[in-house]
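Re-running the complex after MR caught last week's input typo. The corrected sequence lines follow. Everything else is unchanged.
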Amino acid sequence: MDLTKILMYLLIIAVVLAAVMFYRFILSYLVISLIVAYLLDPLVTFWERHHVPRWLSILITYTSILMILIWSMYQLIPTLSEQGRQLFELVEQDTGGERSLSELPLINGVIRFLQSVDNSIPGVNLVRSFDEFIESAKIFLGHLPQLIVNNYQTILGAISFIVIVPVISFFLLKDGQRLKRGLLAVIPNRYFEIMIIIINKIDVTAGRYIRALIYEAISVGVLCSIALSVVGVNYAVLIGMTAGVANVIPYFGPMLGLAIAILSILISGMDYIYILYAAIAMYSVQAIDNNYLYPVVIGKAMDMHPLLVFLTVLAGGLYAGILGMLISVPVVHLVYSVVSVLYSNLKQFKII
Amino acid sequence: MRIKKSMKSLINLIMKWFKGKQDYLCLKRYPVFRGLSHFELNLIYQMFHRREFHAGDVVFEQGFPLEVVYFIESGKLEVSGVPQLGGSRILNEGEYIGLIDMFHEKIRSSSAKATEESVLLAISRTDLQDFINGRLTTGVKILNNTCSELSGFIFQIADTLKTENGPN
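Corrected-run output:
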């Protein structure tokens, strides 16, 4: 390789680095726009198939989604924030007043049982240690709403993108194909076919997986809200939506949803029979999800061992809190599938 | 008469200006896209990649996965491999390679090499099949044309075998 070539490559690398430095602040916008474009692409293609020009189909998709969003906000947000406020107040006001945790029938019963044990066996003093346990649990529960609020704020912070993201997504949707062609045009002939195979496979595995995940979370959230409202559990919409989000974690997500439902039933001092009702409601939602939603939207089951899922969720939680727990499994699955696609195809083309 | 002619050419000019660049018309020469409207041709052209090959460049090799169908816009290709009668065969402008294979093969059964400066239009078979499945009316036209190409191909092979084996 001669000197001019090396200099040229160095120049290109320098320009790319400078570009990354310059554009790094909007990188997150770009990533989110990319995901939005990915999610909306099938809808846009659907309209385009009916002889609607692409820019018009993007506008139609945007308008319909905006209408759905506005409608659901009007319907959902007041209920959601009201339920959330009630729940937080319940825990925060718990400073020994008349709605104290120790006044709840369940905990009251436990204390009475422990008192009888203390009375019959002197010197054990279970009541005091149980009181200490309740105190620490109260402190934890007091922090929990704050934690959730903080994370929900990060999620809601994405709404501040609302002006920029649709614009970037619009161009990605409109010219995505041209962008892809432009990228492929600089690939040498030798690697052209394999690049096409790899892009297609990543599109199939990653794209469909992300889309399916979000559609599934939304539908499970709505179903759970409906089922819990029908059964008559308090804070049904809040629990339902949280269960929908938690549902992205395989195996453990559904249990988490049920656990939250049971916890809120216990805290709000409802009759114990509601636990059974909630379990039945959540179970039926899971049955619908497993038998109808999952096979349709995701197709084949994700072949990740439960232990690996558990460890991944744990690691994600330690690394980035609740958000980390939620996105760790999808991210690991995506990375795994992309690497395996790369490996098998590079092997087939005898490049490695 | 002259006024009429010049009016016609003016209208043509305006129409051309309205329609913009009509790159997609280069697909018209291929029998597979016979009978497709300009709208359909334009849509399908969005999925094509233009590849340039120098003389002697390998287009694809036997034993590698098959994903791309090549349509020859200019130049010549030499195809060699197992299914070629007589070892190898030259493909000229307006011909294509991989379209019939894409329905049953995952691995290339032959190799191709450009024998002169060539421009090929490449399309991914995944894209093409998605297109066929997604737009049924256009898809049926393309499949119909592919079938007629295929039957012509079969008869051609039968003829070759007949002349090789003698008249009986």
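None of the earlier attempt is carried over here. Strands of chain B lie at 49-53, 58-60, 68-74, 77-81, 88-91, 96-97, 110-114, 118-124. The mean pLDDT of chain B is 84.
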